[in-house]
Design a protein that fits this description.
The complex is a heterodimer of chains A (244) and B (423). Chain A is an alpha/beta fold and 244 residues long. Chain A is 39% helix and 26% strand. The radius of gyration of chain B is 30 Å and the shape is extended. Classes of the chains: A alpha/beta (244), B mainly alpha (423).
Chain lengths: 244, 423
């Protein structure tokens, strides 16, 4: 139950001369929900993009579900298939219908029969309440609907871990709730989640732990209640006072 | 009724202005028309310069009088808004109308009225216009080149078959639809090759062999264009991907290849393919001139196609790559299902551009002795019996090329509409 599914040991990353991640250590256990917050440019997005190797780290080790992330591409593709990701800009494939967006990877990466993949996709789309939009194209949907489709698309790969990179930042305020609702539902279902977000309400509701990052370092890592009730560092206090 | 001020037309005396203005305008047009078509100068009693400028002056006054804002007459407002907003625009409008009227008459007389098409010798052309007899007599050569007359049915059958097979995509059957891409990308070109190799070239199955040097005219234009288009596209696509590869060897080879072919003129490439290339081949190795030319043009155009496609690849947001990768897709799956469908859609206009240029570059194969339609024209115009009809020949070729290119252009526009998606 409490196996470590993600292990990051002294991870360092540079963009040119600029160090974006400084000695980051992070363990995530199965079914744990972690919210990562911090000012922009603090390395939150880079951190979770390293977990499925959309970014390469230069020093340290990252072990996801028992596999260490290395140069080996076969290995990386295997890990990526187990780690779902939802992006700030949705990144749906605009030339495919919502249903095809959801079935593309299961069919071609997991070699699932088309019919089975479509059933699975419809089930996931129902979970996020947009089954009726399945035949439409991404451009015809609202931002909230697109982001929920993106969540469904990621879930169709039956991932063990879900990464969310500021999933509500590009949405109109009135659409944020429908996306957060879908995420809360997912969290209650027992998914392991790492969420980069500024939605503190969401953090309070579902997170087991909250991480505060600044300048590439994890400044504070506390259970949710502790984090909001009595943050240790001054930097965290300042941040919280500004956004709450 | 208020006083009529001809300097400031207004809405109150709308009809007066409208009728007098239109009258002057049509007098002006009529003057030019009569002058151009019947060579009668109705204003010859005036001094020469005034007579010459009169239509313009009358036209300007006429258009000035009908320039009434918000007249309430829909067509008049439309006219004023589009071609009569100011005196300067009125002058431009008049000049354009006059130029069109003036040029219709000579063009018509050259093309039709004074042209000849009867007879079958040069002497039949007595009029001052075009001698279409020349085109008529040489038409067979312009289409089939030096291909023997009695064997031309082989070309006809091949082309009719190929055109028919091209419409397979219109069969509305779901079973067939699945294989359409495979059909057009792989099967159709193979059928085309087989037809051309066995039927047009001959040499087996009891058919007489016709060497490629005898091929020519419009049919050769089609053969060369068709195969070059088919080959240059995939090669260009791989070069575009290669140029963006993370593997340095692949990247540098692609860059080198693209920059080499883009840097040399097509005419040199063709020349080298026919003169220099065989020198590097072993003695007993023979490659047909036409095949060498097709390969040379394909590689040349592939470099251009590659850069066009690269433009499309770069226009895609990075998020598309991220999303595909995050779903566990490898390089090829990502490109085949996510990146290329979107990138190629974006570059349809650019690809069409390159393809049109390719078709219009085919006449250059004359440097290696292959005579497609323009080559045949050049040959025909130097025939001692038919000297002096270069003009007709080039106009004919221009019309043929325009029809081909316009059809391709329309087709690409259709594709754009068909594959348009909202982002």
């Amino acid at each position: 139950m409490s196996d470590k599914i993600i292990e990051m040991k002294s991870v360092n990353k540079w963009f040119g001369d600029f160090q974006v991640l400084k000695d980051v250590n992070l363990d995530v256990k199965q079914t744990q929900k972690i919210v990562v917050c911090g000012p922009s440019g603090s390395g939150k997005s880079t951190l979770i993009r390293c977990i499925n190797r959309l970014e390469e780290h230069q020093k340290g080790t990252i072990i996801v579900d028992g596999n260490e992330l290395t140069e080996d591409t076969k290995n990386i593709e295997k890990i990526r298939a187990e780690v779902g990701m939802v992006f700030q800009q949705f990144n749906l494939f605009p030339h495919l219908s919502i249903l095809d967006n959801c079935t593309l990877a299961p069919i071609w990466v997991k070699k699932m029969p088309k019919k089975e993949a479509e059933e699975l996709a419809m089930k996931q789309l129902e979970q996020v309440q947009i089954a009726d939009q399945a035949k439409k194209f991404p451009g015809q949907l609202s931002g909230g609907q697109q982001q929920r489709s993106a969540i469904a698309r990621a879930l169709c790969m039956k991932p063990k871990i879900m990464l969310f990179d500021e999933p509500t930042s590009a949405l109109d305020p009135e659409m944020i709730k429908e996306v957060l609702d879908a995420m809360v539902k997912l969290a209650k279902g027992g998914m392991t989640m790492i969420v980069v977000t500024h939605e503190m309400g969401f953090a309070k509701e579902v997170a087991d732990e909250v991480i505060f990052m600044d300048e590439g370092m994890i400044v504070e890592k506390q259970p949710t209640k502790e984090f909001f009730a009595n943050p240790k560092s001054d930097r965290t206090k300042l941040f919280l006072s500004q956004i709450l | 009724m208020s006083k009529i001020n001809f300097l400031k037309p207004d809405k109150e005396n709308l009809n007066t202005y409208l009728y007098s203005g239109s009258f002057l305008f049509f007098i002006a047009i009529f003057d030019v028309f009569i002058n151009s078509f019947f060579e009668i100068n109705i204003t010859s009693f005036l001094p020469k310069i005034v007579s010459f400028l009169l239509p313009l002056i009358l036209g300007i006054i006429g258009l000035h009088l009908i320039r009434i804002e918000f007249s309430g007459i829909k067509n008049l407002d439309l006219l004023n808004k589009n071609i009569n907003t100011s005196t300067f625009n009125a002058v431009l409008t008049l000049l354009i109308i006059f130029t069109i009227i003036k040029s219709i008459s000579p063009i018509m007389s050259w093309f039709i009225i004074d042209a000849n098409i009867a007879g079958d010798t040069k002497e039949a052309c007595t009029g001052s216009g075009a001698c279409w007899t020349y085109i008529k007599i040489w038409l067979n050569r312009f289409i089939y080149g030096m291909y023997p007359n009695e064997l031309q049915w082989r070309i006809n059958i091949s082309f009719i078959l190929l055109i028919t097979l091209a419409f397979v995509g219109l069969i509305p059957s779901a079973k067939i639809k699945k294989f359409l891409t495979l059909y057009y990308v792989v099967i159709y070109p193979i059928i085309a090759f087989i037809l051309i190799y066995y039927l047009i070239s001959g040499g087996s199955l009891g058919l007489e062999w016709v060497e490629t040097g005898a091929w020519g005219g419009l049919s050769l234009t089609f053969i060369v264009s068709f195969f070059c288009l088919i080959f240059c596209f995939p090669v260009g696509m791989f070069l575009a991907l290669g140029r963006r590869s993370v593997l340095p060897i692949v990247r540098y080879i692609s860059i080198g290849f693209i920059e080499f072919w883009r840097g040399v003129p097509l005419i040199t490439v063709l020349f080298m393919s026919s003169v220099m290339f065989p020198m590097f081949l072993p003695e007993d190795f023979f490659m047909d001139k036409l095949v060498r030319v097709i390969i040379a043009i394909s590689l040349f155009e592939a470099a251009y196609v590659a850069e066009v496609i690269r433009g499309g690849l770069q226009a895609l947001p990075r998020g598309q790559y991220d999303a595909a990768k995050s779903l566990g897709m490898g390089y090829w799956k990502m490109h085949i299902f996510v990146i290329l469908p979107q990138a190629l859609k974006l570059v349809i206009p650019g690809i069409a551009n390159t393809f049109l240029a390719l078709v219009k570059d085919t006449p250059l194969i004359f440097v290696v002795g292959l005579l497609e339609i323009v080559g045949m024209l050049n040959l025909a115009k130097t025939n001692p019996k038919w000297l002096g009809f270069a003009m007709e020949g080039y106009v004919f070729a221009a019309i043929i090329f325009w029809i081909i290119c316009y059809a391709m252009s329309r087709y690409s526009q259709n594709l754009e509409i068909k594959y348009k998606t909202e982002r």
